Amino acid sequence: MLAQESILRLDAQAIDYLIIALYFVFVLGIGYLAKRAVSNSLDFFLSGRSLPAWVTGLAFISANLGAIEIMGMSANGAQYGMPTVHYFWIGAIPAMLFLGVVMMPFYYGSKVRSVPEFMLRRFGKPAHLVNAISFAVAQVLIAGVNLFLLATIVNVLLGWPIWVSVIVAAVVVLSYITLGGLSAAIYNEVLQFFVIVAALLPLTIVGLHKVGGWQGLVDKITVAPNAGSEQLSAWPGNQLSGFDSSFLSVIGLVFGLGFVLSFGYWTTNFVEVQRAMASKNMSAARRTPIIGAFPKMFIPFIVIVPGMIAAVAVPELQAVKSGTGDSVTYNDALLLLMRDLLPNGMLGLAITGLLASFMAGMAANLSSFNTVMTYDLIERYIVKDRSDDFYLRTGRWVTVGGTVVAIGTAAIASGYSNLMDYLQQLFSFFNAPLFATFILGMFWKRMTATAGWVGLVSGTATAVAVFVLSETGVINLPGQGASFVGAGAAFVVDILLSVLISLRTTPKSDEELKGLVYSLTPKADRTEEAQEGDHGWYRKPTLLAGIALALTVALNIVFG
Q1: 3-state secondary structure at position 212
Q2: How many CB atoms lie within 10 A of CB 416?
Q3: Which Pfam family would be a valid example here (predicted)?
Q4: Could you count the other beta carbons within 10 Å of the beta carbon of residue 29?
């Protein structure tokens, strides 16, 4: 450990610390100012449904720019190369556009306060309880990932023990979420988006200069051990998917990642949906994920490319690539590149960008965790019919409790050399079966409440079973193949059981399902007239989604 600490130690100077300190002043200041706008629980948990689309759109994408995106994707870039772009162009953009065009009208139009509450209305209490509990568990596990990496940065920068770094990092995030609730999280996420881009763009430019531009990077990857030309093309992505067959790899990426995992995450994950729910009207809510799709498609160039550069430019990672070194892991790619390339001042900005990304991720987890715990579990099942002020106070205490649990789950994250493996595994457990239940229930009015909760539980159990079989060597699924297969199996099992059970149980009446099932909801209820200032062509959700999709297809062709 000492050897690794010395390898990763960053030579920060006074100017770097000053930049970091200024950032923390802004973060806590936003939390303090946001507190003035919190007068009831709706303000705390959903920002009073009052925010403009550009704010919620940037927050939507920033909330996902946590440990998963920054360290995880740069690690994937170092290990797998260009196929990692599938997490963005296949595994994010289509689902984000589907959320904005098709699903947001149901969420926002029904005025539910959370995704589990939508489940309650569609399927009843058993499915609601399963969804709420599984979501809460997933959020503290994922918050632990962000917290662990945030603590790692503090440890590298200051040399503090990891456990001290974990607690200090947790207290900072806890402070502004507890003060200002979702508004503090969202406005900080907007700030963090610009800080992250300002930090990673120069690192990418300097890195490309070091390796001789894009062609120099291509030449170095081509001759690198355990790399080669397959890391320079997005398709078929065999190393990433874990399949030897190119055909199976493409199927796994398109169906497992691009459909089940992606749609499961972006369309049903309350961490993301909560940002759109905070919008001022339905048009803004629909545009939120679509606006987020535009920066999302270009994030790979400042996250994945630096990982690819680090793999061929940093000696310690070159040793890992060739199988002769173990002093660092792929998760260290960005830190090592920063250590080798950035001068003081720029180093401080880069460190601030990393801190911002982890804080954005953890804050998003906590702000959605406290909403589901308070509205869907405590108010619904534990302490009913109390004043709004009681639930506002409860939400703040739940945030404290969630942070304490996340400190514990950070230890789990520390055991993975590539954190994307861990995160994708969690998504296969929780998001894949939830998406199956959602999509069937939204488009098939015959699906019943019993099918809802049985499908959820069975799908999750199937994904866990695939994970256990892979871990014990019964089936051989290297890379992230286990999460792709697990997600696909969970989806199929959930759908099949839900159909069989629905055909043998009694569905709700058409009147009860109005606003919850697509075919039973009049078009007028799925849209609303344009509000003041929403008449421009660039504010039309469907047109914006079409432009985003065309750009994504073009990027796949160019880099395929």
Answers
A1: coil
A2: 18
A3: SSF
A4: 12
> What pLDDT does 1 receive?
38
Contact by Cβ (8 Å): 498, 455: yes
Write a three-state SS string for 12-79: CCHHHHHHHHHHHHHHHHHHHHHHCCCCCHHHHHHHHHCECHHHHHHHHHHCCCCCHHHHHHHHHHHH
For residue 97, the model assigns a pLDDT of 92
* CA 308/CA 232 separation, integer angstroms: 10
Q: CA-CA distance, 115 to 273, in Å (whole number)?
A: 8
Q: Report whether 142 contacts 426 (CB < 8 A).
A: yes
| The length of the chain, given as a count of residues | 560
Alpha carbon distance 211, 420 (integer Å): 26
pLDDT the model gives residue 500: 95
pTM, two decimals, is: 0.80
Q: Is the distance from CB of 308 to CB of 231 less than 8 angstroms?
A: yes
Return the exposure string of 215-234: e unless at least 16 CB atoms fall within 10 Å of the residue's CB, then b: ebbeebbeebeebeebbbeb
* pLDDT tier for residue 2 given thresholds of 50, 70 and 90: very low
Mean pLDDT of 80-96: 85
Q: What is the domain partition of the chain in residue ranges?
A: 1-525+536-559
**What's phi and psi for 523, nearest 5 deg?**
-55, -35
Percent of all residues in the chain with a pLDDT value above 90, rounded to a whole number: 7
Taking the CA atoms of 209, 212, 214 and 220 in sequence, report the sign of the dihedral they define: negative
Helix (H, G, I), strand (E, B) or coil at 279: strand
What CATH number belongs to 1-525+536-559?
Answer: 1.20.1730.10
Q: How far apart are the first and last CA of the chain?
A: 40
Q: How many CA atoms lie within 13 A of 535 on its CB side?
A: 2
Q: Is the distance from CB of 237 to CB of 400 less than 8 angstroms?
A: no
Q: Rounded to whole angstroms, how far apart are CA atoms 110 and 200?
A: 39
Predicted confidence (pLDDT) per residue in 443-502, tens digit: 888 999 999 899 989 998 998 888 888 878 777 766 566 777 888 888 899 999 999 999
Cα 320 to Cα 3, 314, 333, distances in angstroms: 15, 10, 11
